[in-house]
Structures are given as structure tokens and as C-alpha cells.
Amino acid sequence: MTDSFLLTDLYQLAMMQAYLEAGETDIAVFEFFVRKLPPGRNFLVAAGLDQVLDYLETLTVSEEDLSWLAGSGRFSPRLIDYLRGFRFTGEVAAMPEGTVFFPDEPILRLTAPLPEAQYVETRIVNLLQFETLIASKAARMRLAAGARTLVDFGLRRAHGSEAGLLAARAAYLAGFDASATVLAEKCFGVPAVGTMAHSFVQAHDSETAAFLSFARARPDNLTLLIDTYDTEEGARKVVRLAPNLRAEGIEIGAVRLDSGDLVALAVKVRQILDQGGLPAVRILASGGLDEHRIRALLTAGAPIDGFGIGTSLTTSADAPAFDCAYKLQEYAGLARRKRSAGKATWPGRKQVWRRFDADGRMAGDTISVAGDPQEGQPLLQPVMRNGRRLGPAPSLAESRDHAARQRAGLPEAMTALEDSRGYPVTIAPALRALAQEVDRRIDVLNARDA
């Protein structure tokens, strides 16, 4: 149902009708940005652009949806006629997926006739907010884990099937190595990996029988879950089984711990494996982990080689939403702004320029009107015109590499898991002057209405 034209807020359709009735169909400019960072965050990672562009490029109104709208009695014949053959005809500029960004910086700028630009708000916010949320969470976990393996285990705890699938994509983009979600491999090329559940062990008369059965059925990249009963004894059974399996051409790649004191158990299991001649067998851990727990485990010296992350990743449990917005910044050639207390916006079409220090690390950003070039690299790039992509989308692997370079370019203080000193984002004089000009115009107009 996610491809239905009706997957929107009612007020988008109501506003479309009102715009059409008033003849308000000139070109509008909207921008998507985040107002402030969630607690503990020092940066965000842009994600979801590919899904947004797919949505815009394929946007249509089916006969079924059109019939439902007409039959609902809520909408005028004029709107129904307008929607026949409807498609998105505008243009988009955006930061590439994987780009690090900060509050007030637009990561997407959309230009289109006002009814079109208004209608697409709901789905654009839905896609960008969620994937950016998960990518930003995943990037923190990558920073905490260093080079150790990270796997997304979160589909079953995600808030719906689409969320679980897109979380796997966003996490991989931001640095995870794989996902347990099989469909993510088919749709996006995210490597699908998996081990076994406790139920598999429980279904057998003995743990050894379970290990042997699974190893013979799934010999490649074999990982055994050893904490169903007694973790240390499970590790010893792995040691005893290893020679027999090797004789069958099967190598045990890893064991997984999912409960208990992971530091103490990992140390003991490592000793058992090493003393049993299995120093190459890796130890993976899962079970209620997040970036803080990963850091604590590694700081305590736990010999863990990789982590499976579920709930805390796919729900971004500590920060499940952003204070983000998709706001009108220009209409009919005039800059516009919102002046609500605590939610004021900077007007006009904007660009973000980023400066770097001698070591190639990010040194500061400047936001200004698009026609006011600043020192540094412009981050918003044209990606769509006339409702069609300007070229092939970067592959997910390319976006993932870009995200890795962005992480490597963060100032060291910004890689902490706690609040750091703020990254310098400057509002250019030209943008401040435009805001003052818009305010004066609004004040004059409002005075006439008084």
C-alpha cells in the first residue's frame, strides 16, 4: 500500500484543492532540515534520498485511488480533474546520502509548482526522517565498535515491515557490515547473514546434536549459538566437535553469546577456544546492545569480534524521532519564512558550504542564499529536473564509501558518544539580510490586514 497516492495527510489534499481554487500554482521552493540535534548526538548522517527520488519519479494517481477520492465527497471536481495524469514535474537538489550534516542545514531542496511541492511533503519527511535517524544511530555504533563486525538484527522489533527493511539499508550505508533481513539483500544488496535461534537447540535432544545438525545443513560461514544452557560448556562442545567437522570439510567460523555477563563469558569462551586449538573462531555478541554498551564491553577488555544489534538500532531507541521540517522558503519568486516562536526558518533557496582543515577534517559550515558563494565545498547537488533523475543513482556501496569518508573527516571531538562542543555552523550576512527583508515585507502586509 505504500505506493498509493492516498498515503498522505488529509491536509495535503485539502491545501492542493485550495491552491487550485485560488489559482496559486506558481513555483514554490521547500527545504527539508533538522532544527536541533537529539541529546547525545554531535552530528547526523543524511539517508533516504534514493527512496525519495524513486517516489517522486514514479508518483501517479491510480484509477482506484482517483475513484475513491471522488466518491468520498470531500473534494471538488477541479481537484479530481487536476489529479488525472498527475506526476511530479519539479527539480531537486540534495546532499548525497552518507553526508554528515548539522541543524538548520537543508539536506534537500525541492522546487515545483506549489500544489505538487505541497503534496509530496508527507512522504518525503517520512522517508528522510526515518532513514536519517537510523543511519545516524548506526554511525555512532560504528564509531564505538571500531573495525569490529556489526550486523543488523532488528527486523522483528522494527515498527513495521518497511521500517525494518529501510533500517537495514540505512544501517549498511552508515557502516554496518550485514543484516539478518533477507529482503535487504534482494532489494539493496545488503549482505544477509544469520546464525541460529535458541529454539533450534531446544528442539534437539542435546546441544551437541543441534550443533552437528546445523553445521551439516549450513556449513558455510558457520556460527553456533552456545548460551542456550551453559555457555562455557557450550564452548567446550564446540571444541570437541571441531575436529570431526573439519574432517567433513566444515570449519566453525564463530560462536555467538546472547545473554549473561558478556565480558566475563567472552573472556572465558576465548580461553576455552584458544586452549582447544580454535584461535581463529570469532566471538560474536548480541542481546540488548547499543553504542554505549558496545563501548563499555570493549573498554572492559571483552574479546568480542562482532555485534548483532536489534531494537536499539531499528527503533533508534534513545532518540526515536527528529525535530525536522519541510518548509516553504520561496513562492512566486519571493522569499518566505516562518516566524513562529522556537520554529523560525531562514528564508529563500539556500546552499551549505563546508570548509576543511589542513588534515582534511571538517572545519566549519556556512549557510547562505544559493547565489551567494562562500568559502568551501557546496554540499547540495542537483539530482532531479522535470521530475526525472539527472543520472544514475550512486550505488549503495558508493554511498557507503562516502559515509565512511565523512566519518573519517569528523573532528575528533565530534566522534564522542556524549555531547561535544558544537560544530561551527555560520549564517552568512546575505542570508541574515534576506531574513530582515522578508520580515519587513511581512510586517507591512500584516499591518494592512489589521
TrEMBL record:
Q: What is this protein called?
A: Nicotinate phosphoribosyltransferase
EC number in record: 6.3.4.21
Q: Where is the Nicotinate phosphoribosyltransferase N-terminal domain?
A: 6-128
Is-annotated flag, keyword Transferase?
A: yes
PANTHER family reported in the protein's UniProt record: NICOTINATE PHOSPHORIBOSYLTRANSFERASE (PTHR11098:SF1)
CDD domains per the UniProt record, alphabetical: NAPRTase_A
One of the Pfam families matching this protein, by short name: NAPRTase_C
